[in-house]
Amino acid sequence: MRTLFLAIFTICTAIAASSGEIASPDGNFRLSINTNTEGEPYYSLSYKGTPVIVDSRLGLQSPEANFDKGFRIIGTDTCHIDRTWTPVWGEYAEIRDNFNEMLVKFGSMTSGLEMDIRFRLFNDGLGFRYELPVQDKANYLTLKKELTEFNFTGDHTLYCIPGDYDTDEFLFSEVPFSGTSEALARYKGVHSESESIRETAVQTPLLLKTADKTPLYISLHEAGLIGYPGMSLTVDSDKRSLSALLTPDRLGNSAYLQLPVLTPWRTLIVSDDARDILASQMILNLNEPCSYEDTSWIKPMKFVGVWWEMFVTDATWSYSDDFRAKPGVTDYSKIKPNGHHAANTANVKRYIDFAAKNGIQGVLVEGWNEGWEDWASFKKNRQFLFDKPYPDFDIKELQKYAADKGVQIIMHHETAANAADYERNLDKAFSYMKDNGYNAVKTGYVGTVIPRSEHHTSQWMVEHVRHVIEKAADYRIMVDSHEAPKPTGLCRTYPNWLAQESARGGEFEAFGGNPPSHTCILPFTRLKGGPMDYTPGIFEIHYWNRENGKKSQAFTTLARQLALYLTMPSPIQMACDFPETYERFDDAFQFIRDVPVDWADTRYLEAEPNRYITVARLDKNSSDWYIGAITDDKERTALIDFSFLPKGVKYVATIYEDAPDAHFMTNPQAYRIRTINVNSKTKIKQRLAPGGGTAIRIAPAQIANK
Amino acid sequence: MRTLFLAIFTICTAIAASSGEIASPDGNFRLSINTNTEGEPYYSLSYKGTPVIVDSRLGLQSPEANFDKGFRIIGTDTCHIDRTWTPVWGEYAEIRDNFNEMLVKFGSMTSGLEMDIRFRLFNDGLGFRYELPVQDKANYLTLKKELTEFNFTGDHTLYCIPGDYDTDEFLFSEVPFSGTSEALARYKGVHSESESIRETAVQTPLLLKTADKTPLYISLHEAGLIGYPGMSLTVDSDKRSLSALLTPDRLGNSAYLQLPVLTPWRTLIVSDDARDILASQMILNLNEPCSYEDTSWIKPMKFVGVWWEMFVTDATWSYSDDFRAKPGVTDYSKIKPNGHHAANTANVKRYIDFAAKNGIQGVLVEGWNEGWEDWASFKKNRQFLFDKPYPDFDIKELQKYAADKGVQIIMHHETAANAADYERNLDKAFSYMKDNGYNAVKTGYVGTVIPRSEHHTSQWMVEHVRHVIEKAADYRIMVDSHEAPKPTGLCRTYPNWLAQESARGGEFEAFGGNPPSHTCILPFTRLKGGPMDYTPGIFEIHYWNRENGKKSQAFTTLARQLALYLTMPSPIQMACDFPETYERFDDAFQFIRDVPVDWADTRYLEAEPNRYITVARLDKNSSDWYIGAITDDKERTALIDFSFLPKGVKYVATIYEDAPDAHFMTNPQAYRIRTINVNSKTKIKQRLAPGGGTAIRIAPAQIANK
Question: What share of chain A is helix, strand, coil (3-state, %, to 5)?
């Protein structure tokens, strides 16, 4: 299926101008472009008359050619475009792409260099990118610096994680500009594969909130990250300013480019209503259309897996405890098994049985292949083999067993961040998958990157991951990538890229926990780039902490876990807990059985970053609506207005809620299930326990009563 | 065909010892191993009672574990092995592998570390390697330094090229230890892709000659370079000492190792007869046997090609002069051709016709594929496509045309040293070759390496090239690699690795020239690692120098070019000049038509490094012998003793020689062809012009007279 375009073009105009100005289609945004007396390009942006970005610099620097000053505006091309397209999967059945565009052409009288910057102003924000056309005075660039600034107007609050070239698995800080240095310094060295940025820096997607009486919410990110390094932002607390910092390789170069160059889009989503930030599809709109002719093989799904037990029991990824075992060298059939290897045939069958019984499409299996006996990323030139199962994992038998039950096994390719070796083996790995009936893979890049010149977010790695996605598409394989560069909406172009991790995920509930606010900020930040494989579904809140041997717990109520399937939308959603746990709470598990992973429509009903989210979604394949509502560590009453329902139709709502005495710390598993009749006029007050949540299925009355 | 072993093992003995000593099977070499009072391991070597290496240190250093001191010898295992094996191709039909071996076990009382060093003493020299067994106190090593020393006994003459991490395409210096600093400093910055080693350093294969009345010749190299960086040697002029210097990556680490570790062999071939250095097969003997079950697809061959014209005419690799063309992006069918692109269908057919007519098996075509419009290695993340011919190269038509004439086209894969991108496309590239009937590829790595952490000779690149060879074997493809790490005899293990460049080759005759001595030293140095694709066969000595637009010339006589087919043996030999040139000198070209590229036996008749070589070889597929004799820039009379011929058999020798007035500078194309009758008693004096040579075909009389 190709995406459909319904395009309405107004007449485009080209003029010679010394400055450029445009407004968004609804007139709320105004953008102006100028140069100063040194010929340095600047831009500024306002929303409903309020300045959002003031005089902020633009430009690129390389030893071969500096596109930074001496410029004047030699012309502008403006356009209005209004079109609608159909995503393969997502939060909406159709997405409107409606913007005014201005291409500003800069020329230097002295150097002869030319630089275009393309601005698109939507009703929800701004996207702009640098475009370096083919020209006589420049061909190759070794990019050292992008000069893009974002100068704000006050001591806004930042919802941010610290700048790091190699990981984004952090909790968020909520801190004003003036407090960033102190707040971000706390993170240094907390993550094993981290290489912190030395300056005070933050990552995108970043959320800011102004201190105004009617505050503005500002989401800052990038779209369409292709052939370019990831962008972080250095923070100037005094100037309330953020500046682009491109991840360099270990030689200190950020990008190797040949003209013509199109950079990724720099994006600002702005609104005085926090819900608009969540609803915005601007980043997808700025990405290129689907690059595949046929997408029939891309199928959203839920999955269970041999995974969570490696976090909360003594089960291991490794087959043996012999840390000297070498993949492809050691005869694994002859070394001593450790007796608690999870990815064994019998255990996988147990998950397949459970998935088949409950209509879950997939079973992820981690630790199925040679190489888990030690962890020596960077030091080891080959850590894993992608076509060598452990002796107790009978891949042929499991293929047949799963196929007979209509379940698919999801492959796991942990690379230990050895992207070089993964590329060397990629065709072999994907062929092996297809030979054994696999259609989806979870990839992992835990550790320090090989090639050793690279970071997780440097240009080469950005292209590596895209190469994997494209190669996977050649084999009709769907991908869920972990520890990869942050998503930037590329799932529109490559819809087999179902999800990424790229943030601190649910796994951290097993080591330290995620405070309830974490999932109240992720949708405002990380999720603006694309779906996250957050792995919700923890029903057994208390677990054995394998790190310290003590009883520990996740920071959530059980009902909240159900709400996450709505508030953390993804076309591939895990139910991470054990089959036997779900069997103990089968009435609550009914929600996971029911909940879709692909949507026809979405309505954000309530939202405040780090505090709460209430969202309603319409199943793409039925008339059922679903609602998810979560709060932070404080009790809350969600006000749910059902006016999104079609008028005059009767529905039955099944409400999965925290019990009155539930509390995420002291009584997390207390939940209640009740049904009420609702229609478009219904409004309810729904209590959420501290750290809790509510999940609701809303089915037309005649169906629900069957 | 697998190699055959005829092995005779004497009883092996293991003893506890505080020092170790062994002798070579013929008793000429004596080796002793010891530790000093700090427990540092040392070795020394003598030949016929004369010290060759005196007390030289051994050891390895890494931050994780230092194998350098505190050791004592805790035991030795000794063995005698005598066996014969059959190479797939080479200078001999069978090769004898006859040595005494001593495995010296070092143990540390303090650190608990264990290190073995395996020494093999042959009748032609010594090989030794480090072996780090699996042990409790060490697992991963980030190798910083190998301590191996070679301490010599006097101010020997070195025949050397300067230490460089990225290129070995230099002329040789003949210089005593005491003059090395000055001599090697002259080279700095003479080669575009060079990264000179800062210390005074030389590359291997290195030749040394003592100043004794009966001098010793000492060849120093390594064998079986796998999973380890290439070794250069730093020079201590005062101490007459060389020390191992392993190529580091750009992070400063030399190797990433996991125990067990076997390093490459460090090799010393020693004799008081220079001819023994040439004849030695010790480096092949130290390599592992052929790793392929079936080698029937590996076929030595001669080839012509679309190549030399790009050096000496205005013909280009590129199709267009538009330096902004981007492979895979630009539509090459729509850009303006430059009108002098050599790899066009008609021109390739001309070479195919010529090859077919003259029994030449292969036609190399360079510049057939997209990407030659500029040269931006390192700056460009994709320089070439390996499956996109230029519009004027009709690959399908040429496949059919060549096949109909019994000729094969040799693929060319220039990577611009972007090994990362080559790996990404390797399966696609080799599949494309097989789909189009190609069985051999010339690879190239001109430029600065990507991954950008690597050098041409760093560990990752060593493994990259081996990966390419193994992957090629999966496709039954033969490889001739240029700008790859120096050969170390791996062609025994991987006989599809027919040849390498890895030295200043014949192409330099087109820009600056190779003095005649160059090909008198290469067989003593570079060729000890394996065959070189030197590209002999220049008949039109004078050419148009495209660099300065002037008439220029190669430093050779025409007859010498024929002799190079014997003195520079390779299973893949080019006849590099133009078909029309060979047609002008058809009588001389008869020798190239006749000369084999695979040999049953070889006799080095005369040899002195940098001065002269005379060699006789027996065709593997007939009873014909061939002789090649070359001199340096001085006239010489070769004394050729035909006693290698079987007694009582009459032969006719066809002699291709310099005319009496020939001279490589003033009259290089003057040659003469004559025949004489010879038998095992014949001795002749054969004049070689300055810079000249002689090539002789010796066929049994009854056949020759037919």
Answer: 20, 35, 45
pLDDT band with cut points at 50, 70 and 90 for residue A6: very low
Sign, Cα dihedral of A85, A90, A92, A97: negative
Using an 8 Å CB-CB cutoff, list chain A residues near B467: 424
Q: How would you classify the pairing of strands A408-414 and A440-444?
A: parallel
In angstroms, rounded to a whole number, what is the distance separating the alpha carbons of residues B400 and B437? 9
Q: What is the ipTM of this complex?
A: 0.92
pLDDT of residue A3 exceeding 70: no
Residues B283-299, mean pLDDT to the nearest whole number? 98
Find the CB nearest B134 among A324, A380, A460.
Answer: A324
Q: What is the DSSP string of B309-344?
A: HHHHSS-BS-SBS-TT--TTTS-TTTSPB-S-BS--
Put simply, the answer to whether B379 touches A452 (Cβ < 8 Å) is no
Cα–Cα distance between B180 and B428 in angstroms, integer?
47
Residues of A with CB under 8 A from a CB of B: 134, 139-140, 142, 227, 249-251, 253, 256, 258-259, 323-324, 326, 374, 376, 378-381, 420, 423-424, 427, 451-454, 459-460, 463, 467
* pLDDT at residue A50 greater than cutoff 80: yes
> Above 70 in pLDDT, residue B1?
no
Instruction: Report the gap between the CA of A193 and the closest CA in chain B (Å).
Output: 17
Cβ atoms of residues B649 and B690 within 8 Å: no
Contacts of B134 in chain A (CB under 8 A): 324
pLDDT value, residue A11: 56
- The answer to whether the beta carbons of residues B48 and B121 sit under 8 Å apart is no
Please indicate whether, in this complex, the C-beta atoms of A381 and B256 are within 8 angstroms of each other: yes
For the cut 80, the answer to whether the pLDDT of residue B67 exceeds it is: yes
Which residues of chain A lie closer than 8 angstroms to B463, CB-CB? 381
Q: Across the beta sheet with A301-306, what order do the strands follow?
A: A497-500, A478-481, A440-444, A408-414, A362-365, A301-306, A572-574
Is B366 noted as a catalytic residue in this protein? no
So what's the pLDDT on residue B5? 45
- Residue contact B250–A251, C-beta within 8 A: yes
Q: Which amino acid is at B657?
A: E
| Facing B424 at nearest CB: one of A134, A324, A467 | A467
pLDDT at A581 over 90: yes
Residues of A in contact with B379 (CB under 8 A): 140, 142, 256, 258
Q: Which residues pair with A698 in a beta bridge?
A: A625, A653
Region of poorest pLDDT, from A452-461, B17-26, B445-454: B17-26
Q: How high is the pLDDT of residue B189?
A: 65
Chain A hits for B380, CB-CB cut-off 8 Å, are 140, 256, 258
- Give the sign of the dihedral formed by CA B482, CA B488, CA B491, CA B494: negative
Band of pLDDT at residue B16, cut at 50, 70 and 90: low
Active site residues of A: 507
- Cα separation, B628 vs A618, whole angstroms: 85
Contact A139 B424 (CB under 8 A): no
Q: What is the reported pLDDT for B3?
A: 41
Closest chain B residue by Cα to residue A252: B452
Taking CB atoms and an 8 Å limit, are A381 and B451 in contact across chains? no
Place of tokens 């379940």: A407
In the predicted model, what is the mean pLDDT of residues B661-682? Answer: 98
Find, among A637, A522, A680, the residue nearest to A160 by Cα.
Answer: A522
Cβ pair B142:A379 closer than 8 A: yes
pTM, full prediction: 0.94
- Report which of B146, B255, B62, B133 is spatially closest to residue A379, judged by C-alpha positions: B255
According to the model, what pLDDT value does residue A704 have? 56
pLDDT for residue B674 is more than 90: yes
Tokens coding B354: 């010529």
| CB contact (8 A) between residue A258 and residue B378 | no
